[in-house]
Write a structure and sequence with these properties.
The structure is a single chain. The chain is α/β, with parallel strands linked by helices and about 110 residues long. About 30% of the residues lie in helices and about 20% in strands. The protein has two helices and five strands. Strands 1-2-3-5-4 form a five-stranded mixed sheet. It starts with 18 loop residues before the first strand and ends in a 13-residue tail after the last strand.
């Protein structure tokens, strides 16, 4: 069984239905018709800038790719993952976070 869906919730469809955007170090997954969809290039640029700042500050090299799932609300994150806040799965280089608007989103980890 791939998934068990008790009730449909438009903001948390199966991941196969999400859009993707690749930048130098990230693959972003997000839903159409959301703030993220309308601003994905700027969001990716911000993530790349913070990534580069962190790598430089920590004096490390990182050649891997990070997968980011950006949910349009805290509720959609919860319904899709059963978690109330963003989280990372470090072994998979994967991050799940809600991203509602320019001013309402989870941290980029610096700036």
């Amino acid at each position: 069984m791939e998934s068990l869906r008790i009730a449909d919730f438009a903001e948390a469809p199966i991941y196969d239905d999400w859009l993707t955007y690749d930048s130098e170090h990230f693959t972003f997954y997000f839903l159409p018709d959301t703030y993220v969809a309308d601003n994905i290039e700027a969001i990716a640029d911000d993530h790349e800038a913070v990534f580069n700042e962190n790598v430089e500050t920590l004096e490390v090299e990182y050649d891997g790719f990070i997968t980011m799932y950006l949910y349009p609300s805290a509720e959609s994150l919860y319904r899709a993952t059963a978690r109330e806040a963003g989280f990372a799965i470090t072994e998979e280089n994967e991050v799940h976070a809600w991203w509602i608007s320019e001013d309402e989103h989870q941290s980029l980890a610096t700036r």
